[in-house]
Design brief:
Length: 79
């Protein structure tokens, strides 16, 4: 997956990323992030990093998040 992550980084570098208005919690670090440069790096890193799903959801909950949105093809989480 590392070659795919590197390839993904090229078009992502051309995408404007602004500081989020809503809470962004990375599944790489299981921590909130606001810095657009760090978010860009984490989006690439999540293709090869272990997923910290449980920790990320707990972090979001501790920040008062009560609604979660699953984005992507299919619906793996409801199962």
């Amino acid at each position: 997956m590392r070659p795919v992550a590197e390839e993904f980084g090229q078009p992502l570098a051309r995408v404007a990323i602004e500081a989020p208005r809503l809470t962004f919690v990375s599944t790489v670090t299981a921590a909130p992030e606001r810095d657009p440069g760090a978010i860009r790096r984490l989006l690439i890193e999540q293709l090869t990093a272990p997923v910290q799903w449980d920790r990320a959801v707990r972090c979001a909950g501790s920040l008062g998040v009560g609604r979660y949105v699953e984005a992507g093809p299919g619906a793996p989480l409801p199962g």
